[in-house]
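Task 17 of the worksheet. Students: predict the tertiary structure of the chain below and write it out as structure tokens. Keep your answer in the requested format; marks are given for formatting as well as content.
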Amino acid sequence: RGSVKDFPGFDASQDAEALYNAMKGFGSDKEAILDLITSRSNKQRVEICQAYKSLYGKDLIADLKYELTGKFERLIVSLMRPPAYSDAKEIKDAMAGIGTDEKCLIEILASRTNQEIHSLVAAYKDAYERDLEADVVGDTSGHFKKMLVVLLQACPEEDDVVSEDLVEQDAKDLLEAGELKWGTDEAQFIYILGRRSKQHLRLVFDEYLKISGKPIERSIRAELSGDFEKLMLAVVKCVRSTAEYFAERLYKAMKGLGTRDNTLIRIMVSRSEIDMLDIREVFRTKYEKSLYNMIKEDTSGEYKKALLKLCGGDDE
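Model answer:
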């Protein structure tokens, strides 16, 4: 359900040459660069990088960084990295320097599949020669840290077997760990939300509503706090609908004054080949305007054109 597909009749060397020519001489042909890169799939872009290297002995990403600037550069360079390396770079940046961008950590670790998390951990190790879990542990604290570590293990059960008894037990355990307890047993929340499969958790949330009379989200807001609460709410949202989670993140990144460009870039790049069509659909229904239009009103220049290409169409 992505908006970006493999380009038919793809030729990596031809594309590498076209990009080389677009950057040759004084000033670069940004239009040509953005048209080419946004109409190739990630797998094809990686092949273009390899072809560029063997044709010109140069690193395409380094050349693009040199030629382009600002948000447009960030977007184009993000598109050139394999998804796991893109995620690794975002997480590295989120933990660099003083202070941590918790929202970025939450967004990536709460929304990725097991396989994507395994690839991310490997890419992080490969790119930075560091252990992602150790870096996260060094950079975060408390229950927030514990849940991130559980998510990094990426070992929820697989989705095929759901036991009704366990669904009931989990719903009861969550209720007893929160609403029915003086204080909260956070470990129970971490264990169940971090280890169970999505399909299982959806049933647990239904059961929870049945026995407690309120949605699990309301209990999380009442019982947990700070970044830990935000992380748990993100996990619940992604269990219910990843597309809806991202539609909401995109809307928040653009509404009001100023745009959270890093968030906008990260989501448009990471979802363009996965579920952009679903995100657009949810966005249109939920906010009564198309994602395409909101991007159009909120951004400008080549940056805007590239984002609109990734969005892939207007649903107005």
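Marker's comment: The chain has a mean pLDDT of 93. DSSP finds 20 helices and no strands in the chain.
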